[in-house]
Amino acid sequence: MKRRSRDWALEYQRARGEPLSAEQADYLVESGEFTRESLESAQAAIARGELAEAERATRQAGIDASLIVEAVARRLGISVAQVDKRREDGELFAFVFAGDTLYPTWQFTDDPRHPVLSGLSCVLRAIPEDWHPAGVLAFMTTPKSSLQVSDKQLSPEQWLLRGGDPRAVTAILESFLMS
Question: Which of 102, 99, 10 is nearest to 61 (CA)?
Fold first, then answer.
């Protein structure tokens, strides 16, 4: 499966946050999602730049936990062209940031015989193309209640690393996307 490349740095630069209209604020309060006080507190935090800083830190964490194509090629013991082919075929996850193609480290193992998570291509087919790389990182590294071993919740990354059925991960994605 070929994924189109999006430069997420450019996407972020294009995004513009507009303040809530009075109607939108009223809806959030009436829906029960916020009290008037909690909405005002959230809006004040946004105005102070706390949301922007949290978004920046999340994006930076995803970038910091990624490798450039040459490093992936060395890690896998293959050529850059082979890495690109695996990405194009949906066997590796990558994203473009500021013109560089980056490969998140969560998809790699320390086992030289199986350097990529088992079942990864199955999971990648289920991840929406428009998911932000930080969202994919969060999904893959956050424990899920339906992925358990000995009463311990595992993240999709941990689940696949232990040889878990990738269909259990795709089921979570399908359930999430349908809600």
Answer: 102
The number of distinct structural domains making up the chain is 1
Q: Sort residue 150 into left (φ over 0), alpha (ψ -120 to 50) or beta.
A: left
Task: Classify residue 25 as exposed, middle or buried by CB count within 10 Å of its CB (0-12, 13-18, 19+).
Answer: middle
28 located within any domain: yes
C-alpha to C-alpha distance for 46 and 27, rounded to whole angstroms: 19
Q: pLDDT tens across 127-158, in order?
A: 998 888 888 999 999 999 999 999 899 999 99
Q: Nearest 5°: CA angle at 44, between 39 and 46?
A: 95
Note whether residue 42 is domain-resident.
yes
Asked whether the whole model's pTM tops 0.90, one would answer: no
Burial class (CB in 10 A: 0-12, 13-18, 19+), 16: exposed
